[in-house]
Design goal:
By secondary structure, the protein is mainly alpha-helical. It is built from 5 helices and 2 strands; from the N terminus they run H-E-E-H-H-H-H. The chain has a single domain, classed as Up-down Bundle (Four Helix Bundle (Hemerythrin (Met), subunit A)), CATH 1.20.120. The protein is about 65% helix and about 5% strand. It has a two-stranded antiparallel sheet. A hairpin with a 2-residue loop joins strand 1 and strand 2. About 20% of the residues are buried.
């Protein structure tokens, strides 16, 4: 069961990924949004436990809905752990790197 705080955090991620700035959408393609959601869910910790599992499950559903093909370079679990462990890379650079790894 999600608390109101968890719901607010997830809602904030959705608003951030889908936001436009001066009429330009920051994450304009499905691949951009997929990588952004994946990274934001992991980095922003919207739920108490299971953020990497949530991000991985969400990515699997999102890629099926939009018929995106993920490269088979590494498992999504390994990628999720690597993203969480990275404390030095700027989030936007991390999203770009994640997109390149995934697609």
């Amino acid at each position: 069961m999600l608390s109101d705080e968890n719901i607010d955090k997830i809602d904030s991620i959705v608003k951030t990924v889908n936001a436009t700035h001066f009429g330009i959408q920051r994450f304009s393609s499905h691949q951009d949004r997929a990588a952004a959601y994946f990274c934001y869910i992991i980095k922003d910790h919207p739920v108490t436990d299971g953020n990497k599992r949530l991000a991985t499950l969400w990515l699997e559903v999102y890629t099926q809905v939009y018929e995106l093909k993920i490269k088979d370079r590494m498992s999504l679990d390994e990628l999720a752990v690597s993203i969480e462990a990275d404390k030095n890379t700027d989030l936007y650079d991390l999203i770009e790197l994640t997109k390149k790894i995934l697609f």
